[in-house]
Write a structure and sequence with these properties.
This protein has about 325 residues and is mainly α. Helices cover about 75% and strands about 0% of the residues. It has two domains: about 1-255, no CATH class; about 265-310. The chain has helices at about 1-25, 30-40, 45-70, 80-100, 105-125, 135-140, 150-170, 175-185, 190-215, 220-240, 245-265, 265-270, 280-305. α1 (about 1-25) packs across α10 and α7 (about 150-170) runs antiparallel to α8 (about 175-185). About 50% of the residues are buried.
């Protein structure tokens, strides 16, 4: 029995290292992976799974912000991060409250899905901007003060939605904050990822404090997941710097499609409507729908690359550390 427990802890930690690496690379909290894991494999209810996953998001946000902060030029845009935190913090409280009072949250899940699907597709079709040649160039030339009031207002609304998603689903909010930073606020993707992790420190802290009051957190699983995420968070920022900005956007879009399908339980509705939403049949259906969406996009991109001139993308020249 002791050997099984030790093996389980080891496997969770290894899994968390991988999730922490991916999450810190693309600016998300990892809840899109951790929440389904806790529900499917460890039979957590939705309340406890999302609350525990949000603690892990706090771990990865804190630990990945340090290596991002040490990079030169520094990709963390503090003004942008604090500006969004103004709304992600109350948003996370609202998200936890919604999770408590709404028995049927599918309407909200569909709302998030409809909002994020176009963003994911836009990321998958990302192209290199003309005029700026490296991630360092883009970071140096970014000016937060030049954003219009209209863009800032819409960005705040997006930040609030990201906070709600964090509290409701335990996803950290980065799945919404990163697109807000890149599309609305014009940050280069490397800076958006780093700034998202910075903002997530405040978002996840607020949501975790609220979850702790409600006694929704499983401390054992939170610590195990968090420890693995801390290790992965030291790897992700270094890999993110070695992947050019266009590729990073495409990776983000590719990853983002899966949790959207899972969040809306499309696999369950189409393949196992009378069964458990977390059954293997539903999970298999989710994976199949994800493939149906991303494979045609991949083939379309391949077709365009074959028809057009070779795509030359300069690698990121931001050093991993000082």
């Amino acid at each position: 029995m002791q050997d099984i427990l030790t093996l389980t802890v080891l496997l969770i930690a290894i899994y968390a290292i991988a999730v922490g690496t991916i999450s810190s690379m693309v600016g998300i909290g990892g809840g899109i992976f951790n929440t389904p894991l806790l529900i499917i494999l460890f039979l957590f209810d939705a309340q406890q799974a999302s609350a525990t996953a949000l603690v892990a998001a706090l771990f990865v946000a804190l630990s990945s912000s340090i290596p991002y902060w040490r990079q030169k030029p520094r990709p963390v845009i503090v003004k942008a991060g604090l500006f969004l935190a103004i709304m992600t913090i109350p948003g996370s409280w609202v998200g936890v409250w919604l999770r408590e009072v709404i028995a049927e949250d599918m309407a909200l899940r569909y709302l998030f899905g409809v909002f994020l699907f176009p963003v994911a597709i836009k990321m998958l079709f990302a192209k290199k901007k003309k005029g700026l040649h490296t991630g360092a160039d883009e970071i140096k030339e970014y000016d937060f003060s030049k954003l219009s009031k209209q863009r800032l207002s819409i960005s705040l609304f997006g930040a609030f939605i990201g906070g709600v998603a964090a509290g409701l689903l335990g996803i950290g909010g980065g799945a919404i904050v990163v697109p807000v930073l890149t599309i609305l606020m014009g940050l280069p993707i490397h800076a958006a990822v780093a700034t998202s992790m910075f903002t997530m420190m405040f978002t996840a802290s607020a949501g975790t404090a609220r979850n702790a009051i409600g006694n929704y957190i499983d401390p054992v699983y939170a610590i195990i997941l968090g420890a693995g995420m801390v290790i992965g968070a030291q790897i992700g920022p270094r890999l993110a710097c070695k992947v050019n900005s266009v590729q990073l956007k495409r990776i983000f879009g590719l990853i983002l499609v899966f949790p959207l399908v899972k969040m809306m339980e499309l696999g369950h509705h189409f393949f196992d409507p009378l069964g458990d939403p977390n059954s293997l049949i539903s999970l298999g259906g989710t994976i199949l729908i994800w493939l149906i969406i991303v494979l045609p996009i991949g083939l379309l991109r391949y077709y365009h690359l074959q028809r057009g001139p070779p795509e030359v993308i300069e690698p990121c020249d931001v050093p991993a550390t000082e």
